[in-house]
Design goal:
The chain has about 120 residues and is mostly beta strands. The protein has a single domain, classed as Lipocalin, CATH 2.40.128. The chain has two helices and nine strands, in the order αβαββββββββ. The longest helix is centred in the N-terminal third of the chain and has 9 residues.
């Protein structure tokens, strides 16, 4: 271990270094994390899309329709703690929700794909 690593680790463990998680993840600069029931208020009745390849339509009550590469799939969405989750035939996927003024990012909890796109009112 490098000579500076151990003292730095000791300071961090003692709480002497306080930074936000987003500062260590450059893709999240300018974003703020959405927690708990605020996720449900943000997503219900909205469409989340990259504008080209995929679109997720979040209906009130937990129905979720995924349109990806000209395919449609019906899913269920819900909030679990501070995570937005959906249930599909592949299993359960959960994400941290981060937002800026114009963009929403869903960061996977664990391994998975990060989604980035815009959120709009449902038109269909």
């Amino acid at each position: 271990m490098r000579r500076w690593a151990l003292p730095l680790f000791a300071l961090a463990a003692a709480g002497q270094i306080s930074t936000t998680w987003a500062q260590h993840r450059p893709e999240l600069k300018g974003f703020r994390r959405i927690h708990g029931t605020a996720i449900e208020r943000l997503m219900s009745g909205k469409e989340f899309s990259d504008g080209v390849h995929w679109r997720y339509s979040f209906q009130p009550g937990g129905n979720l329709t995924e349109y990806a590469m000209s395919r449609r799939q019906d899913l269920r969405w819900f909030v679990k703690g501070d995570a937005l989750c959906w249930q599909s035939a592949r299993g359960e996927d959960c994400f941290e929700a981060w937002t800026s003024s114009t963009t929403l990012q869903l960061q996977p909890q664990g391994l998975g794909v990060r989604y980035e796109g815009s959120l709009s009112r449902q038109t269909r």
